[in-house]
Structures are given as structure tokens and as C-alpha cells.
Amino acid sequence: MGDLHFTLAGGTYDRTQALRDGTVKPDGCSLTYLEMKPMELFFRVVRYAEFEITEMSFSSHIMQTQLGNSRYVGLPVFLSRSFRHSSFYINKNKGIKTAADLKGKTIGVPEYQMTAALWQRGLLKDEYGIEPWEIKWRTGGLEEAGREERMALNLDPKFDVEPIPGDKTLSGMLADGELDAVICPPVPSVFTNGHPDVDRLWPDFRPAEELFYEKTGMFPIMHMVGIRDDVVEKYPWLPATMYKAFRQAKDVAVKNLEFGAAACSTLPWQGAELRRTRQVMGHDYWQYGLEENRTDIEAMLRYSVEQGLTKPGVKAEDLFAESTWNTTKE
Fold this sequence. Notes:
Elements: E1 4-10, H1 17-20, E2 29-35, H2 38-48, E3 53-57, H3 58-67, E4 72-81, E5 88-91, E6 106-109, H4 115-128, E7 136-139, E8 160-163, H5 170-176, E9 181-183, H6 189-192, E10 198-200, H7 205-216, E11 221-228, H8 229-234, H9 238-258, H10 270-281, H11 294-306
Parallel strand pairs: 1-2, 1-3, 6-7, 6-9, 7-8
Antiparallel strand pairs: 3-11, 4-11, 5-9, 5-10
Helix pairs in contact: 4-11
């Protein structure tokens, strides 16, 4: 009997390269890897559940799990993680000197429910005491007009969340002073192009992000992996099998980073950067697994409730296939 074949949709990462090129082969499976950017991929996942195995938005998965309409069974495989101090952009004419000055401001965000914004609003509350309803949130496309939330929101009226005009972009409104700030994962073009009125809130963001890790122990999770529920129903062994394969693929990526004879990335100080990162975050700084990331996951569940996206009751275990976290130990 031949291998079963599945489609796997996701971004282009060193930690999935071994699955793309066949260096790591899941037991009993062959894969077609569909490379996609998050914005397109997550929209198609939430709206149409097109892919058998897929990278997906963690925040969206929390919401759909709470609503009981998630089409995907989660794996604690975190393909994207990122500190987000670097993703606060301000108009320099708005009197914003520190994050505390964002209280009462009008801030643009591509989608209110997106995972990066979940963490950024959590940072504002935990570190600066700013409740999410103390800011006016304006949603829309960063560079292209007309972007909509991929999921319908059912927010309490105390949350001031409205779309920007359909012919405008967040980037343009930030430069024009119609928005006080923007939070977003991509770098806005007005910042890249050197607009004189636009800057980062934390121009030297790395020390702030390292301090955040030192204080909280959290390395913010952005994206996870899911397997469509009908596939899991037919092949209940698949979540544990794919979880194992993703871990093996990440191990290959780390070994490539450690290989000193020739850099695997287009960075001149790759080895030094790896050593510095491990000095700050520990040897195994990009961990998969539920227990290994419980602090981060439970923070996200709390943020989702505090920000009006979900109701209390969802547990970390509810988000993932049991076979990926309740396993035998050697």
C-alpha cells in the first residue's frame, strides 16, 4: 500500500524547509507544500477551510474554538513567533513619547482580531495599564484599500472598533495625521520610504523586546498548524504523526544554523546572532508543544477575553489534538 497524500499550506520558513524538500518525510505520508503569504492563506482557511493541513492564525483559532465552528484540529506547532514592540508606528506630531501616551488615541490595525494585535493590546494593558476600550481602533488595509475582517466580530459596545473609509489605507492615514498610530506586522511603506512624520514608537526596539522576554518568559506565538477535522476523523493518527514531523523539520533548521563552515542564511554574523539569542532566551528558544508554551497560550486566552473577542471558558487543551500533548514519555 502506498503513502497517503496530503496538501500542506504555509509560509516559506527554514523550519519547514525539510518538509518541503523531502528531507523529513512524515510516517506513511507524502506532501504537496503550497507556499502562501499569511493574509491570503488565513482568509481562505477561515472562510473556506480549503487545505487539509495548514498554517493558521492562532487568534482566529481561539475564536472559532470558543464558537464551536472551527474546521481544524490544532497542533502545538508554532511556525511564526515574533516580539511586537517593533510593530508600533506613530505619527510624530501627535504627542506620543511613550506607550502610555497611546491611551485615548486613534490607532489603525489591519484586523482587530489578528494575532499580532492581540499581543500588542495585551502589552499595552499588562505593561502600561491601558484597557483595549480606552483606544479607538480603526481597521482596514495597510497598503491596499478595502481590507475586511476575516471573521465577524461580536464586540461589546464599549469597544470602539470601526473600519476606515473604503478608499483609504492605514499607511496613508498615518502619514496624513488621520491616525495617531498604526500597529501591524508588515512595515508600512510610509516608514520604509522615510516619511518625516512617521517613526517607530520604540526606534531601538530590541532592548525593549529582550526586557519583555526577561520579565515575562514569553516569546509571542503568532501562527500555529491545523489539520481539517474531516481528515482527522478519517486518519486519527495524523495529528501525532505530523507533530513529530514538524519537530524533526525544525531540528534540521537549527542544525543548519549551528553549522559554522558555511552560513545557511544571507547574514554575515549568523553564528554570532544564534549565540546572542541563546544567551537571552536559552538554548531551545523556539519550542513547540503545549506544556512548553503554556504561559504564552494562557496569556493569549486571557487577552482574547479581555479584548472582547471570546468569552471565558476555553482551555489550552481545547485548542490542540490530545495526541499531541498527552503522549508517552521515554
